[in-house]
């Protein structure tokens, strides 16, 4: 009975969150990375208040696998695209390279630290642990960057650059995750297939089912049929990869990229599935927080501190690289990397995925490192990014709170609603119409003249 009430509570929270947070997250309400739900899940979990037991959490593992796969599909559909359109090849390659570099630095630091603090772990467990933490700490969440840009109305080359890099750095961590998952089937025996072949199989499953979805979607976009195609192919992708112990997140992400690149209805598909991201993400963050067990082993907290320190240093180095290769960031300070410290949905999804696939020491360590990086980045990333954009002159220093809009307008494709400033009535009246026709009343009124003063009679009569 408790499990039923918990499920109803999660569904209710996701429904409320879709209204309170989902529609306004990019406008500056709520926390950009959703870390408040991670903390709430931790407080309700077995380690803190104990309102949710471990046996109850195990019942939601299949649902969590499906939710994680769906989130990766949504991320794949938007990979390489920003609000201004498709991200250029140079920035796309830079974003992927930076995420791989940051993940490699964090993974090496964790691998070395695990030999000191967790000597009881075997060589393969240490390798999977290092790959998992590197994957979870390699990205910069696009939600936090868009949150700052939208809330403070940042417009300029630097804001566009950081937004593009955040929209194109998810591939690197997911590739690292795919390699880590591929180590498990190779270690479990059976088919003697190398790790890189298992990784290629994971990518191949995503590409194959993505092409099938493109064919089934056809030339005519139909809403109900499209939902059936996306749900059916995504569930098949998740089930196939889970059956072989591979990474469902990498496979569904590749599937989303394939659909976005091969279907002529990408805009309609993104507009259809984008509203589902936040409602699905909130229960995932709650479940991830409930799975946190920071004191389950004595080496968990030291490894989390090492991973956080390595991430900060790696992001600072990534910022220096961006300053050197991108003219738009040449005038920024050396703290550019601190503005890219925010991580959230993808990091916590990978942490929860590792916790479900490798229950115990490895999964607990990866999930804890992802949660620590997310909470820390929540306090440092948006503040640093706001400071950088203000120094670059891309944020107006008059007020940090945007004025309340008076009217709304839709974009030409109908996919986004944006604010429009009211047009003064005087400008409307003074605007000439085609053909030389003028509106009545456009002639300016003469300035009011001062009336002559009439002397008052001496007898006081009016």
From TrEMBL:
Annotated region described as Disordered, given as residue ranges: 434-462
Keywords linked to the UniProt accession: Membrane, Transmembrane, Transmembrane helix
Alphabetical list of InterPro entries matching this protein: Cation/H_exchanger_TM (IPR006153), Na+/solute_symporter_sf (IPR038770)
Keyword Membrane applies: yes
Top-level taxon in the UniProt lineage: Bacteria
Principal cellular location given in the protein's record: membrane
Protein name listed in UniProt: Cation/H+ exchanger transmembrane domain-containing protein
Membrane-protein topology: Multi-pass membrane protein
PANTHER family membership: CATION_H+ EXCHANGER DOMAIN-CONTAINING PROTEIN (PTHR43021:SF2), NA(+)/H(+) ANTIPORTER-RELATED (PTHR43021)
TM regions (residue ranges): 6-25, 37-57, 63-81, 93-117, 193-217, 229-246, 299-322, 334-356, 362-381
Domain Cation/H+ exchanger transmembrane span(s) in chain numbering: 18-385
Cellular component terms (Gene Ontology): membrane
Subcellular localization, as worded in the UniProt entry: Membrane
């Amino acid at each position: 009975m408790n499990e039923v009430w918990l499920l109803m509570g999660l569904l209710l929270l996701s429904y409320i969150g879709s209204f309170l947070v989902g529609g306004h997250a990019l406008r500056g309400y709520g926390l950009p990375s959703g870390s408040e739900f991670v903390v709430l899940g931790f407080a309700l979990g077995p380690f803190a208040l104990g309102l949710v037991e471990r046996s109850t959490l195990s019942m939601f593992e299949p649902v969590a696998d499906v939710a994680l796969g769906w989130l990766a599909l949504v991320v794949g559909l938007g990979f390489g695209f920003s609000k201004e359109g498709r991200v250029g090849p140079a920035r796309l390659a830079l974003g992927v390279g930076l995420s791989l570099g940051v993940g490699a630095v964090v993974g090496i630091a964790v691998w070395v630290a695990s030999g000191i603090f967790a000597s009881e772990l075997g060589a393969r467990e240490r390798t999977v642990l290092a790959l998992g933490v590197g994957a979870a700490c390699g990205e910069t969440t696009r939600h936090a960057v868009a949150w700052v840009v939208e809330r403070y109305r940042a417009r300029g080359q630097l804001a566009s650059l950081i937004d593009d890099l955040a929209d194109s750095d998810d591939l690197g961590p997911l590739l690292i995750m795919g390699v880590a998952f591929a180590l498990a089937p190779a270690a479990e025996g059976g088919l003697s297939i190398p790790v890189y072949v298992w990784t290629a199989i994971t990518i191949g499953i995503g590409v194959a089912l993505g092409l099938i979805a493109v064919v089934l979607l056809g030339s005519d976009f139909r809403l109900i049929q499209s939902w059936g195609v996306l749900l059916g192919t995504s569930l098949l992708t998740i089930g196939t990869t889970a059956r072989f112990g591979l990474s469902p997140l990498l496979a569904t992400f590749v599937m989303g990229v394939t659909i976005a690149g091969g279907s002529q209805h990408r805009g309609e598909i993104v507009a259809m599935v984008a509203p589902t991201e936040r409602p699905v993400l909130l229960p995932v963050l709650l479940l991830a927080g409930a799975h946190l067990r920071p004191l389950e082993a004595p080496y968990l907290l030291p490894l989390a501190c090492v991973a956080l320190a390595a991430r900060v240093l790696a992001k600072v180095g990534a910022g220096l690289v961006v300053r050197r290769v991108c003219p738009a960031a040449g005038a920024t300070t050396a703290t550019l990397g601190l503005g890219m410290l925010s991580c959230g949905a993808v990091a916590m999804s990978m942490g929860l995925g590792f916790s479900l696939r490798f229950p115990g020491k490895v999964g607990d360590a990866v999930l804890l490192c992802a949660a620590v990086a997310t909470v820390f980045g929540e306090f440092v990333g948006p503040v640093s990014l706001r400071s950088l954009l203000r120094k670059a002159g891309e944020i107006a220093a008059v007020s940090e709170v945007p004025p309340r809009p008076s009217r709304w307008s839709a974009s030409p494709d109908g996919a986004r609603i944006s604010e429009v400033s009211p047009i003064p009535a005087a400008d409307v009246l003074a605007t000439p119409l085609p053909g030389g026709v003028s509106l009545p009343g456009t002639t300016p009124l003469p300035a009011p003249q001062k009336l002559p003063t009439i002397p008052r009679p001496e007898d006081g009569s009016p």
